[in-house]
Amino acid sequence: xxxxxxxxxxxxxxxxxxxxxxxxxxxxxxxxxxxxxxxxxxxxxxxxxxxxxxxxxxxxxxxxxxxxxxxxxxxxxxxxxxxxxxxxxxxxxxxxxxxxxxxxxxxxxxxxxxxxxxxxxxxxxxxxxxxxxxxxxxxxxxxxxxxxxxxxxxxxxxxxxxxxxxxxxxxxxxxxxxxxxxxxxxxxxxxxxxxxxxxxxxxxxxxxxxxxxxxxxxxxxxxxxxxxxxxxxxxxxxxxxxxxxxxxxxxxxxxxxxxxxxxxxxxxxxxxxxxxxxxxxxxxxxxxxxxxxxxxxxxxxxxxxxxxxxxxxxxxxxxxxxxxxxxxxxxxxxxxxxxxxxxxxxxxxxxxxxx
Length: 355
Prior knowledge:
By secondary structure, this protein is of the alpha+beta class. It folds into 3 domains: 117 residues, PAS domain (Beta-Lactamase), CATH 3.30.450; 83 residues, Helix Hairpins; 140 residues, Heat Shock Protein 90 (2-Layer Sandwich). The chain is 51% helix and 19% strand. The strands form 3 sheets. The protein has a 5-stranded antiparallel beta sheet with strand order 2-1-5-4-3, with helices on both faces. A 5-stranded mixed beta sheet has the order 7-9-10-12-11. The protein has a two-stranded antiparallel ribbon with strand order 6-8. Strand 1 and strand 2 form a beta hairpin. The protein is elongated.
């Protein structure tokens, strides 16, 4: 019966990939598996001849020539002190430069299980992943530094351009055509400055460095302020801007500036889409769990094949825009724990909803 039990245990151990051996409290080898022979490059006869821990350790030192390791393992196997008979683990370097992980487990009958495994590939993979992560972090830092530096260099001359174009618009004796040209320069420079700010904001969000300044925001005031910024532009295209908001709507906890920034992008997007006779609607719907802000236009809509990518950054858009605005809208809403979606039927307009 004892022999049968040993056979069952040995067969079980042979199913393991780890090199496993069981030593009795007297230091003699009781069991080992085939992986143990393979790992240590010894055969069963040599192990049977060696028999006890010291002799077996001398055989195995050809693979791991670390006296301290074998001394420590012997203490775990043969020392009756309960403090020595505890589960321990570690790693060692083999003579052929592999990394071997080892561990000991005391068994109820006083024996000790000792297991070794080759973790070289795992450690190399971990090192490669760590190196890749470090390189990625470094590239992100370089990107942020580059974006910040270039943006600063661009904003400085833009400020000058905007300032002098505003001065030209106020000069007396300037023809109406020249005044329009100066105004066009000012508008274009201001749009470029805003695009630079958008890119900087996206870089800050990507780096996890944008912090929200939360407060109680009156949604009606937020909508009215955003609407007034684009009303003249929409009406100048012969379209109508409609703002609807439920009465006595409770304030929401949000960053007023960032939500306003998202609305500005959506309304500017809508103002470019509508034409004579069109309508832009800015509205709010509520339920027990959320507030939905909807910006809808009756413009040309968005083709179905582009709707899945409408919030992607730096994507060329049929509806115009710098290519990062809608991506920024989505990111700003997600910072608030919400989400953004689009509904559109080509030829009949589009609606952007912020949850």
